[in-house]
Amino acid sequence: MMDLMTDTKVHDENRQGEAYAPFANDPNHYKKKFYIESYGCAMNFSDSEIVASILNGAGYGATRDTEEADLVLLNTCSIREKAEQTIRKRLTEFRKAKMRKPGLLVGVLGCMAERLKSNLLEEEKLVDMVVGPDAYRTLPGLIEEAEGGQKAVNVLLSRDETYADISPVRLESNGVSAFISIMRGCNNMCSFCVVPFTRGRERSRDAKSIVAEAQDLFDRGFREVTLLGQNVDSYYFVDEKSNETVSFAMLMERVALVSPLLRVRFSTSHPKDITDEVLHTIAKYENLCNYIHLPVQSGNTRILQLMNRTYTREWYMKKVDRIREIIPDCGLSSDIITGFCSETEEEHQDTLSIMEYSQYDYGYMYFYSERPGTLAAKRYKDDIPEDVKRRRLQEIVDKQYFLSLDSNKRDVGQTYKVLIEGNSKKDESSWMGRSSQNKVIVFPKENYDLKKGDYVMVKVHDCTKGTLLGTISNQ
């Protein structure tokens, strides 16, 4: 599958294949070393932090050097064909490494594990271990099995595993922003998506453990958390001890109350689950960011029905209206798939027009690529020629280019509260941060006594398609 996106990405291309970083100057001595690469969405990177915690508890230390690793793990994604091809190539490279170091164990974690377990283990003999996203607690035992020469497999999906009691060992980050996984799995059977089959049904994590993790991150200097799930808005936790139910809006409020200095974001949303309660909660708290990722996928009702998205074009447009009404300055982004089975030119035009209507700040844009095991693969023929898909995708990308540029132009002259994330990539004499609307703002440091994690008011004086350019405001 080819994808073209703008700005921040659902699958951050800069992080694909990123190796988990060990502690700086770690004083501990470990019996063995593990190396882990992560692919796919933010959920996978968050899962790698859980895996690191479990392995640390079993006496394994992290390394970024594959040559000194006793255990190599690839945390995988099944959403995109490109990711699978990359992972297969990496596994082939590690098979050669096993010849040089016979004791080396290689394992596959995550979504590919469930879908391709027999291929990877038996047919291609690329790995020693296959571990699904709900089975990470069993890793120490599976490692022992693999060390004994057994092929170790656990891809069982759980009805209740949320890893709520495991404190993640944070991936090397900017030290300002962190992810908190609040739920696992998905109940939305979108016909193009493999997630319900690889990650199982929805289950929500204990609200108290989420708030405690947010508090711990804040105490350690983090100033922004993103509440993470396949469909965060359907979060619903029932505390059987107190007979209390916690909705997503209630959870957001509790995390916001950790501190007014802790910004809160969330991802990803299904339009059907963004309630007025959620929108009013965002509007109520200044540190709940005015930004919503609202995937539309298609602007045509017939195609939306084929995708099993459970809403119509008109319903989605009314949801956009409601967001603008309750949170007037809300940033909005979307996911879009073009060239879905049987899509006509007129239906493609409907997608372009709903983009115009919604005025997305940026978007994640793909052409449809059939994924084995999905409902679409079983029900529909992938009948749009690739050259047509590519042409339609380019039209969508071009449309979003102008929408993103127009959105940024409207910000020129405005002043925004910016959370400093670090130095600008292009110029160390400038800071880079984000507004509440999730827009990147770059501005000169000047002589102000500021540091990473500080908030500062910045007035925008210029822009590109992807970045706002400003100066610190004294107002």
Tell me what you see in this structure:
By secondary structure, the chain is α/β, with parallel strands linked by helices. The chain folds into three domains: 15-154, 3-Layer(aba) Sandwich (Rossmann fold), CATH 3.40.50.12160; 177-410, pyruvate-formate lyase- activating enzyme (Alpha-Beta Horseshoe); 412-472, OB fold (Dihydrolipoamide Acetyltransferase, E2P). The protein contains 13 helices and 23 strands. The protein has helices at 42-57, 81-100, 111-123, 139-147, 195-199, 207-219, 248-256, 276-284, 301-306, 313-326, 345-358, 375-379, 386-411; strands spanning 3-5, 18-19, 32-38, 60-62, 71-76, 105-110, 129-131, 152-154, 177-181, 183-184, 203-204, 224-228, 236-239, 244-247, 263-267, 291-293, 331-338, 362-367, 415-423, 430-434, 440-444, 455-463, 468-472. The strands form six sheets. Strands 2, 3, 4, 5, 6, 7 and 8 form a seven-stranded mixed sheet that branches. The longest helix is centred in the C-terminal third of the chain and has 26 residues, at 386-411. The radius of gyration is 23 Å and the shape is globular. The model is unreliable at 1-9 (pLDDT under 50).
